Amino acid sequence: MLAALGRTQKDVAGIGIGIGIGIGFGIGIGVPCPVDSATGKPSWPPFMPAWDDFDIPARVRSHFDCAVAVDNDANVMAIGERATVWPDVSDLIFVKVANGIGAGIISEASVIRGTRGIAGNIGHVQVPREAGRLCRCGNPSCLTAAASGEALVEVLAARGLPTASVDDVARLVLNGNAEAIAAVRQVGSNIGEALAAGISFLNPKVIVIDSSLLSPGEHLLAAIRSAVYAKSMPIASEALSIVETQMGGQAGVVGAAIYAAQQVFTPEGMQRLLRATENPAH
Ligand SMILES: [Zn+2]
């Protein structure tokens, strides 16, 4: 049985509770940075450096004796969206465009995390066209520096437009501001070009996009689609769907709950369940 609690919004982590057999339970957490899947600790988080190697599972377990599953937020969103909307699809990429850009990759029905949890970290793919824009990671032309919500806000504010947040950009687009629309479409093109390279590696069937920049129309999605189809091999893109998330913020919550439940049924999780069975008051 799963109980999905909490809410995911923008860069806030998703938290889900997976309940196993009604006795022991697990807590799933998604955080907006790479996570070492062996330890559940953030691994080299450029946007939240103080969290590097912080033992989130131990901190949570100091309050709850249960399995604690921590993963990158895009990964848990990919898990939640696939389980709910695309259960028959084995190859799916979930792209989250917020202040940063990240992707959760599901290949042959398994999440791809990589050696240090960096897999799917497309925000740091280099975009040569944008060379010179310094990313927080120190590299000069990362996708995040060129195409994140934060970068978009900065670019438009520098041109004198009233943008202090991504919501302001969305409002301008909704009002038909040509400069804002062009900037959003350029962001979409940059993201699409970065994704096109990944499509040759992974051959996904579905790419799901989550961003508050989607709300004011098809500009972002259309630009991503256009760049992907222009830059990928026809054999890889002919059966590919690029769509907006149907779950929105709930994808992370549901995905975190599923990930937590998966951890409950590991050998360590089962031992914890048995301890709880032997000592119900624990
Ligand atoms: Zn970077």
Can you give a write-up of this model?
This protein is of the alpha/beta class and 282 residues long. It folds into two domains: 2-75 and 250-278, no CATH class; 88-244, ATPase, nucleotide binding domain (Nucleotidyltransferase, domain 5, 2-Layer Sandwich), CATH 3.30.420.40. The protein contains ten helices and eleven strands. The protein has helices at 56-61, 73-85, 143-147, 149-158, 166-174, 178-202, 219-231, 234-237, 250-264, 267-278, and strands at residues 2-3, 15-20, 24-31, 35-36, 41-42, 67-72, 92-97, 101-107, 110-111, 206-210, 241-244. Strands 9-8-7-10-11 form a five-stranded mixed beta sheet, with helices on both faces. A four-stranded mixed beta sheet has the order 1-2-3-6. A hairpin with a 4-residue loop joins strand 4 and strand 5 (41-42). Helix 2 crosses helix 9 (250-264), helix 5 crosses helix 6 (178-202) and helix 6 crosses helix 7 (219-231). The radius of gyration is 19 Å and the shape is globular. The protein starts with a strand and ends with a helix. The model is unreliable at 7-13 and 17-24 (pLDDT under 50). Bound molecules: zinc ion. Residues 124, 135, 137, 139, 142, 144 line the site of zinc ion.
